[in-house]
Amino acid sequence: MTPEILSDLRRHLMPPVGLVDAFVPPEEGVPRNALLQDIAEAHALYQADRYDSVALRLPGILAAAEGSVRAADGDDQRRQALVTRARALFLTGKYLTQVRQYDLAYQALASGIRDAREAEATPTAAVGVIGMCWLLLRQDRFAECADLASDTADAVEPRISKATPEELAVWGELLLRVAAAAVRNNRKAEAKDARRMAATAAQAIGREHIDFRTHWGPFGPATAEIKVIEDLSLKGDARGVLRRADTGPLHPDSLKAYGTPTSNVWGRYRLDVAQAHSLTGAHHDAIGELLGLYRSHPEWMRHQPMARRVLEKVLKARTRTSTKGMRTLAAHLGVDG
Length: 337
Known about the structure:
Strand content: under 5%
Largest sheet: none
Helix content: over 70%
Oligomer: single chain
Organism: Streptomyces chrestomyceticus
Protein name: Transcriptional regulator
Radius of gyration: 21 Å
């Protein structure tokens, strides 16, 4: 991200505040469908790991979303404009969290949640809470994350027999956040219960559900299983990771039936597998996993400290000359080879 784009985002997210609000003349808002399409296209760029392209589009999207709120005529139109601006802010928060601009990410997510609350759009606000919990996890604020996700999950818990896939996905993602925070904070019983309920939601959906208009990320049987493996990785149970990897919902045949998670979720899973190989001394397999990620998701990989840690461990343990693949990875990740 260039300093100019970062400055533009800061102006949108953290404007000066004085004794009175600055006067901004009314303006004609961008048609809602056009703005939603812009947000969807920028999100597709995010999913493709084209972060520089996302950064270039965000200031214009935020400006258009703010203009639409100012130009809204009547309560219904204002509510629609607020929900649309919330979605723009959630995308901004997602991008900023990914590139570790945490204070700006917090501002974007908090503002989006407040917009959704003002519009009385509780499901949309809950999506923002999922993003807020991801940010809290990144900042090691585990107790706050678990409590926030748990309270929100209780508030939006659906009747499973009548719930839509969207409702199940939001509830399930919140439970995944509860479990992720609890396991990192040694709240084992809470983590176990949250994983169990998340698995129930995933089974009720029956396949990977990906619709970024209505929830934060992918959710379904494969994603829920990947998060169980992540728990094992965090505990240092490398053999447990390798026993569960590519089996059950993650077996190739199951993935054909359930669908495959998004590239970011899948990439994190393969990093857990790579780390497990490095811990068991299977350095060749660890490098193979890292090279696979380098070929498929090079830009995403740059932002993953785990990738650097695994490579550093392998390089330190290796007694022979580094291979060409190792040297390529070292250069890409900024690791001394």
